[in-house]
Amino acid sequence: MSNRLADKVCIVTGAGRGIGLAIVKAFVAEGAKVVVNDVDKEAANLAMDQIIAEGGQAVADYQPIGTVDAAESLLRTALDAYGEVDVLVNNAGILRDRMIHNMSEEEWDSVIQVHLKGTWACSRAAIQHWRPMAKTEGESGVPRHRKIVNVTSASGLIGAVGQSNYAAAKMGIVGLTKTWAKELGRLNINVNAIAPAALTAMTEPLVQDADAAKARLARFALGRYGQPEEIAPAFVFLASDESNYITGQILCVDGGLVI
Ligand SMILES: NC(=O)c1ccc[n+]([C@@H]2O[C@H](COP(=O)([O-])OP(=O)(O)OC[C@H]3O[C@@H](n4cnc5c(N)ncnc54)[C@H](O)[C@@H]3O)[C@@H](O)[C@H]2O)c1
């Protein structure tokens, strides 16, 4: 364990498994106290219990990300547990892939709600909490950086067949990232996004069939899917003070999928 996130309070949505779980574990290893949000209560509790058993600090939250109420409740969970929040990672996500002519309104709405509205709502809650403190700190000349790390995707940068809902949401998240970086920079709130590619429950179905796997992996310069643990260090960097002069950027951590 080193201490790049010593005592920082970090909220990670969708952290019960996959990339989110790897992020909370990496954050705790760097000294952070975490809020493990996941709509899958069992997964959130398991992650929390594991972290606590290994000597870390974690609290679980089960809010379904996608509404203002859920976002405000999540923020309250963090403040009740730790009294402060330093980092928000908007990671929760779902897929409802379908070609445009077959996509239902429910498939469109649910993906937009979790990814785009969820990212907006959670960030809005954090920013409303941070703004008055950041203004006072700025006037006192002792600025403190706070971080939002969003999660986009190759689909949000170059599009993807069957993912008009997901690509629209993830491209929207790129827009939110750049807009908030401009709105909040003067308050020392850094806003960046990561476009990951990792083998998780979300992506495993894409490589189950040998031919599909071959075609998909041919698109990666490194020729393979990464593991969630290979994605998490980039989140640590963007959450830590090492990235205080970086904002409004999209970092691909994807084995060279998008070049
Ligand atoms: N795996 C990849 O290659 C890849 C590529 C690009 C982007 N992403 C993005 O990375 C993020 C994590 O993906 P993953 O691969 O770890 O997926 P995953 O399916 O393994 O994990 C997603 C987690 O989010 C939770 N979740 C879903 N909806 C939620 C909600 N409304 N509220 C709270 N929790 C919710 C799920 O229960 C699950 O634990 C997502 O935003 C995804 O779009 C992943």
Give a short overview.
The protein has one domain (9-253): NAD(P)-binding Rossmann-like Domain (Rossmann fold), CATH 3.40.50. The protein has eight helices and seven strands. The protein has helices spanning 18-29, 41-53, 68-82, 105-140, 155-158, 164-184, 210-217, 228-239; strands spanning 9-12, 33-37, 57-61, 87-90, 146-151, 189-196, 250-253.
Q: How many strand segments? A: 7
Q: How much of the sequence is in beta strands?
A: 5-15%
C-alpha Rg (nearest Å): 18 Å
Reading the helices and strands in chain order gives EHEHEHEHEHHEHHE
CATH class: Alpha Beta
> Judging by the overall fold, what is the CATH architecture?
3-Layer(aba) Sandwich
What is the CATH topology classification name? Rossmann fold
Unreliable stretches, pLDDT < 50, 5 or more residues?
none
The main sheet comes to: 7 strands, parallel
User: What is the overall shape?
Assistant: globular
Topology:
Layout: E1 9-12, H1 18-29, E2 33-37, H2 41-53, E3 57-61, H3 68-82, E4 87-90, H4 105-140, E5 146-151, H5 155-158, H6 164-184, E6 189-196, H7 210-217, H8 228-239, E7 250-253
Parallel strand pairs: 1-2, 1-4, 2-3, 4-5, 5-6, 6-7
Task: Provide an overview of this structure.
There is one protein chain. With 259 residues, this protein is of the alpha/beta class. 47% of the residues lie in helices and 14% in strands. The chain has a seven-stranded parallel sheet, with helices on both faces. Strand 1, helix 1 and strand 2 form a beta-alpha-beta unit. It starts with 8 loop residues before the first strand and ends in a 6-residue tail after the last strand. The mean pLDDT is 97. The protein binds nicotinamide-adenine-dinucleotide. The site of nicotinamide-adenine-dinucleotide has 29 residues, from helix 1.
